[in-house]
Design brief:
alpha+beta; 3-stranded antiparallel β-sheet; 3 strands; 44% helix; 15% strand
Length: 211
Amino acid sequence: MEQTKRISEFLEPEEIKKLLECPDRRSLRGKRDYAILRFLLETGLRKSELRSLRYSNIQNFNGTKILIVKCLKKRKLKGKDGFRDKALYREIPLNESLVFAVERYRDAHGLSHDDYLFHTITSGCYRSRPLTTKAVDIVCRNYLSAAKIEKRITPHSFRRSFATNVLRNGGDLATVRELLGHEHISSTQCYLLTSYKHKRTAVEGVDYGLT
């Protein structure tokens, strides 16, 4: 029997709202975790990109805030001494409420402009350190459990959720490709996956007036 490849699912808007209600934003940890979840859900960042963020990655642009992220892919440029790599960057618009949530966490943690943004929460003599990708996994898993979301959701599913909801709200594949930092459009097409609920709604909308 041919095995069916399991793929991670994505979060519906009502599930996202439920998830974001879980962090206790009165505490430092809750402020941090809320900002982490929102970054993953509203920017489509990879775990490695998230843990490498500094507040200086958030910049002003025409009166709004954008996130500047270094792409994994580099461009080859030819110079006098041969080819050299040039770093590529992508720009992601940020919602004001997300920026406010990040600033609340940053101020509560006492981070400077150039510090890594997301740190461990410690007490006593322990030193706070930048989060690892494994720590991001744990944050996501804990809140998915708290929200009683039983789908097969991973941190990469947050990236899928972002892409899917951008497409549903009128974005096109080219826009999603730029936001996610994909080199080829074929990498973006996998995010066209829809849920059974939306498939069912679409099918039920096809009505030929038959009885």
